[in-house]
Amino acid sequence: MSFDLGGEDGKPSFFRGGELPKLLVLVGVLVAGSLAILVQFQADRNPAPPPGVVTKPIVKPVEPDRSEEFLGVRDLTETSLYDNAPKKLLLERARSTPADDLDAQSHRDVLFTHLWDRPEQYRGVPVHLEGTALRVITYEVSSAISPKERLYEAWITTAESQRFPYCCLFEDLPSGFPIGSNVSEFVSFNGYFLKKMAYIAGDKPRGAPLLVGKLGWRPTAQGGLNGPAPRQGWTWMHYAIGAVSCYAGIRVIMLVQRFLHSGSRTVTKSRTIHVTAEPVPDMNSLLANVPDEDEFVQRGGG
Asked: Three-class SS of residue 213?
């Protein structure tokens, strides 16, 4: 008879119990994390071009529009029939001005606080905005206001206005731009300031600068998110992926080393023990020397 101390084929088993599934999971985590880090490194090496910024060496003085259409405008009121005349005037002005010319004319030094504190000084002044459109709606209007009989309204927040939005009116919606109450698109807007408009938000009265002009938006190939959006560097998620990948790599190395060391040690000690049973030549003589039950009890002291 023989006893085999190795595996089924006489060789030691490299993986035991749940070690192989653990190793496969760790390798998968390591590969996925490495790919994510490589993609981020590649994106950092080839950053998107920064948005074009028109700089003006000389700040032009701001001159409010003295047209008679603005005489009936009242700030901190909702839009009404009194606003139709100046609204029509500014829509015609934006429609007849090429986008590049309107962008060059728009002031980049006019901020939310300027329009809020002294709206009468900026009536009809072109202003440039860059920010995030959070809400975009559309509605029909009279042909006397717009020949397209439709206007679009975008609520845009900028870095300097923070959570206080601008209300921007325009006639032409960029192709592919989403419409809805929950939008998050980086846009630019060049428009003429009309008034400080009152509105209700969360059952509370609020106000927002009302501008009329043109919306700029540039979609990208990644499903419609627009550029030029501010580029973000490494975030906590990237660092977390890196930490998990490093841990997975260390665990894989430790498991492989343990497997190799355990395998070599098992091969050294693996052996086959052969036990040979020799036949008894004279079974009767062997049985004759076995004591009977009474003799066994007497020898045991019973």
From this structure: strand
**Pairwise CA distance, residues 128 & 292, whole Å:** 118
Which residues on adjacent β-strands are paired with residue 211? 168, 193
Nearest to 205 by CA among 75, 111, 76: 76
Nearest of 120, 159, 128, 158 to residue 60 by alpha carbon = 128
Q: Could you give the CA distance from residue 175 to residue 216 in angstroms, rounded to a whole number? A: 11
CB 62 within 8 A of CB 107: yes
Helices 236-269 and 19-45: angle between axes, nearest 10 degrees: 140
pLDDT tens digits for 271-280?
Answer: 566 656 666 6
Other Cβ atoms within 10 Å of 163 Cβ, number:
6
Go through the domains of the chain in sequence order and give each one's CATH number: 2-40+241-288 (no CATH), 68-227 (2.40.50)
- Tens digit of each residue's pLDDT (9 = 90 or more) over 75-118: 999 998 889 999 999 999 999 999 999 999 999 999 999 999 99
Is 133:156 a contact under the CB 8 Å cutoff?
yes
